[in-house]
Design a protein that fits this description.
This protein has 6 helices and 8 strands, in the order αβαβαβαβββαββα. With 219 residues, it is α+β, with helices and mostly antiparallel strands. It has a single domain, classed as Peptide methionine sulphoxide reductase MsrA (Peptide Methionine Sulfoxide Reductase, Chain A, 2-Layer Sandwich). A 6-stranded mixed beta sheet has the order 7-6-1-3-2-8, with helices on one face. A two-stranded antiparallel ribbon has the order 4-5. Helix 4 runs parallel beside helix 5.
Length: 219
């Protein structure tokens, strides 16, 4: 790997440096293979959206579709510059996007705090531009919020969990908390990948430190 490749894996490009992308949207070809629900909206007004990046989105999505009260999930790309990027482009490090999971949930059945608990306890949020053996800016830890209430809850949970991780001997959290940008759907074969390929790769793994704000689920 040359110096430029290393830089692209560890540094986010500016808007001027990012590749141009395209105007055509990725086609969404099927419903959720586990839940049977639509992957894209419009969704009922009673539902809310959340978005998380916690490493390879194959295993991350499976975590959230298991949570009771989650209506649907989809994987895609967010928090970058390139419009309608492809998987190959995101993996190049030249779009600025993160691999993320869009979670549509019923707040009457599951709280945003419970989803935050799944997020924090299912990965190591102290690793910067990587997650385990997966290296690159697309594997960074991120919470992308859809309201001021979500932002406040995310930041409060980050503070609490950071204190717990540091007390347990970990470095400080590197998770970014940003307002949600446009969610670009990933290619169809990535959607519910571990349902279609049960023996497929899953790099998801937590620290073993409880965050104390909700009930998580195992990978």
């Amino acid at each position: 790997m040359d110096v430029m490749d290393i830089r692209r894996k560890h540094a986010l490009p500016s808007a001027d440096e990012a590749i141009p992308g395209r105007s055509e949207r990725m086609e969404v070809t099927h419903a959720h293979t586990v839940l049977g629900t639509p992957l894209e909206g419009p969704f009922d007004a009673s539902l809310e959206m959340a978005m998380f990046g916690l490493g390879c989105f194959w295993g991350a999505e499976r975590l959230f579709w298991k949570v009771p009260g989650v209506y649907t999930t989809a994987v895609g790309y967010a928090a970058g510059h390139t419009p309608n990027p492809t998987y190959r482009e995101v993996c190049s490090g030249q779009t600025g996007h993160n691999e993320v999971v869009l979670v549509v949930f019923d707040p009457a059945k599951v709280s945003y705090g419970a989803l935050l608990s799944v997020f924090w306890e299912s990965h190591d949020p102290t690793q910067g531009m990587r997650q385990g053996n997966d290296w690159g800016t697309q594997y960074r830890s991120g919470i992308y919020t859809y309201s001021e209430a979500q932002s406040a809850a995310a930041l409060a949970s980050l503070k609490t969990y950071n204190e717990r991780l540091v007390a347990a001997g970990y470095n400080a959290i590197t998770t970014e908390v940003l307002s949600a940008t446009e969610f670009y759907y990933a290619e169809a074969y990535h959607q519910q990948y571990l349902d279609k390929n049960p023996a497929g790769y899953c790099g998801i793994g937590g620290t073993g430190v409880a965050c104390g704000i909700g009930t998580g689920v195992s990978a």
